[in-house]
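Appendix B, example 12.
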Amino acid sequence: MSAVMSIPATSSSDPSGLPVPAPVDADAFRRAVGHFATGVTVVTARVDGIDHAMTASAFTSVSLDPVLVLVCVDKEARFRDAVIESGTWAASILSTSGRRAADWFATKGRPLVGQLDRYPHHRGITGAALLDGSIAWLECRTRAVYDGGDHDIVLGAVLAAVEGDRDGAPLLYHRGRYGKTS
């Protein structure tokens, strides 16, 4: 299979004189990147004694020296303000048994107070909630926040990394559905 790159024809150019590609259709983009399977996390922060949480599949390791990770947070999500204000946060990397939690923390408009009550959890060194039964937990201090279009990219310095259920199968997200490895 050979790779061929083409730039869509346009009638305009940028200041360098290079052609400017036509805008990518958002639905086509969503379908294309949906083929990239990701793990699923629940990211938490605590502000003024109140827990904030969200499901995130846009989460990745960035660097080993220093140890860094990132999570992408929708600018319209209430979690965005909490994670920025808190300055520290945690990610619970979910196993397949965490699917209900992933659904719950992805639900828009769920109650803020008590949202963690139905899911067993413990506190780490940052005070953020860590979901029990996860395959790993990472606790972070925000190092930088970058503009990423309709999302903010929150870069975190990892303060603690703990392995949970070593035999647990990771919960995956692929083509708009949760799944697992074969």
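Residues 1-11 have pLDDT under 50 and may be disordered. The chain has three helices and twelve strands.
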